[in-house]
Amino acid sequence: MGVKKRPFSGGNGPRSRVKRPDSYDQSSLVATYRFFNRKKAEASTVMRRSAVFLLINKDEYSKFENSRAFAEIRVNIVEFVQLEDGVSYLCIRNFTALDLALILGFVFADRAKHWVSIGKDDSSHVPRQVPIRGSFYIHKSCKDVFETRGPTNGVTIAQFSELSMFTEISVDRYGIPASFDAVCVLLSKLKFQKSVDRAKQEFQTSLRDLTLKRTITVTSIPFLDRDILMDPTTVSKVNGPIVEESKKALGSFVESVLKYNEAVPVATKEATDSPKASPQTIRSTRKTTPGTSRYSGSNNTDQASARNIPARAVGTNGGGRTLDPQSRGSNANYLTQEQIKDYCVATVKASIDAVKSKSPYQILKTYIKCPRQHYVDLIYDNLHDLRAKTNCNAVVMNLNNVHESTAWFNSLDVSKHTKDSKIVSVPHPSTVRVVSIGGIGEHNLEALKLLLQLLDSNV
Fold it and tell me: Are the C-beta atoms of residues 309 and 303 closer than 8 Å to each other?
């Protein structure tokens, strides 16, 4: 009894076999060549009178001859020519578009593998990361070659060539299929007219002339031969005293800078600590005054004398933000935006005075304050121009490193520039931002002047 076939349950339509898409290894030169040979019949047609010339050495040709790609091309289409002066080239004749694409892909990819450490084990395997880049020559008698100038699908036809009567064509693609497509599209637009033997003879003549021209150019340069262009003895006699004089001048300049830096007075630690001690002295004086409590029946004279202590100037307070020790209340450090701006301008002017007192060649790191409202954005917008004009490193500091500026601000005489303003306290840290400027003295001074201009502008 025969075996019954299973009934078809796919509908009432006719059965049809689903065609699977062609798949091949796109990193293999041989697989890509065979795929294009099946799919593109026009690319497998022999081009009549076709001749392409490729500069190649003997080692490269030997590697190609022993590869699997060499066995795929037709017989007798490549000829390796070694000239007497050591120049060699490969003549590819009567080829198909796929033959030329296979040869160019192998040679160009093998050269690129010297720079990219990928795919060196198999010469016919070309990963996509390896560029297929190089150039070859065709005769100028080819039709339509001048109509395809410029970059086209990774192929560029040079407008000028070192070899007379020949045109240089460059290929620059990633991936074997893309390079095959580019070569096939190019050859579909070309028609070779010159006979292969005649083109080969003219190419050898042009290549020999170019090699001879380069040799003559190099060997005829006068200063390659010793003592032709100049006499070293004469040059040393003339330049020797000048060099020694320059060394002496440079040494004296360094000594003068060092002496100047040593002569400039530097604020000692005791001097910077002295302003911090005076408020403590005042507070101790107040504590020892008899009858300061309102419950002890003290007289009004002592209280009035305690309240009449003059306020300290801006910049001399090292402990608190309020300049008057008697008025440290909840609103003691409240300042208007105009007062905050005036105080910041005073810090810039005081920093300018401090920089002027130092050597212009000394490397300094100065600090200024700017109002947080409006002016910080203005400084951020002009930081790049400020660095470019002054060659200084200007940075708006954060809260985690703002403590670095404390010593600098304690050494400034800000009160000198706040006499005309009604500033009674130092602005609260939340209302200002600190800007640091690093560079040599003269550049630092220029940066401070530019920042002063920004703060003086009305925002």
Answer: no
